[in-house]
Amino acid sequence: MGIERGEAFVLRVRDFAESDLIVTLFFEEWGKRTAIAKGARRFKSRLGGVFDLLNQVEVVFYAKAQLDLISQGALISEYPRLKGSMDTALRALSVGKLLDRLLPSHQREQAPYTIFVQFLDLLEEGTPRWEQTAVAAMLKIVSVLGHRPQFTACVRCGSTRGPFHFVPARGGVVCTKCEQRGSDISRGLALSLNALIDRPLARAGIVRMTKEDLSLARELVDLYVRELIGIPRSVQ
């Protein structure tokens, strides 16, 4: 590859040397790539503010085997409404972190890219029941990347009758006859989470969930994600 131009989302940023940035970008065409933006931290740099987390940007870069070199960058969208709320910003950042940890480098991943675009757009539009939409986005992303959790039957014996526990290390629900450890989950909530995976993201809000169910759903999905990306439960 030589000089390339494309649109991407900023998943991760870290300082490098005196004035540079190392940025992890998620492209529709090239997947996840890491690049250096030289001088981006200098006062009056043309790249100043371009590579904030979650920004959608257009970049021109020299493609390398390991670390790409960014020659130009421009902001497309910074999602001001989304970032204007700490709650929505933190949830969007958690989805971005999930992508950063699970995506392979230099490999096109159309399905998770599409989900991420839809998710950010829905939050920016102020979709109602956005927390439910965020749970759905995370479940959809892990599913299309090959880690779909099993909610409709025990992962050990195949029973659909329950009662169930949710065991992240097992990849889904386990009936109480097979195993006693895990987090309690009602059959109704399990079916609702399965529906969030299967329904279009824009319709995630119509899945019936109580406030208590949604709170537990966030907890269970976060536990599952931490299991996938290798963060111990005790680490905050």
Features:
236 residues, alpha+beta, OB fold (Dihydrolipoamide Acetyltransferase, E2P), five-stranded mixed β-barrel
What does this structure look like?
There is one protein chain. By secondary structure, the protein is α+β, with helices and mostly antiparallel strands. The protein has a five-stranded mixed β-barrel with strand order 1-2-3-5-4. It has a three-stranded antiparallel sheet with strand order 7-6-8. It has helices at residues 80-83, 86-102, 110-125, 130-147, 187-198, 211-229, and strands spanning 3-16, 20-27, 31-37, 56-62, 68-77, 164-167, 172-175, 183-185. The radius of gyration is 20 Å and the shape is elongated. The protein has a domain at 3-78: OB fold (Dihydrolipoamide Acetyltransferase, E2P) (Beta Barrel), CATH 2.40.50. The protein contains six helices and eight strands.
Q: Largest sheet at a glance? A: 5 strands, mixed, barrel
Span between termini: 40 Å
Strand content: 15-25%
Shape estimate:
elongated
What's the CATH topology label of the domain at 3-78?
A: OB fold (Dihydrolipoamide Acetyltransferase, E2P)
H/I helix tally: 6
Please identify the top-level CATH class of the domain at 3-78: Mainly Beta
Estimated radius of gyration: 20 Å
Unreliably modeled segments: 232-236
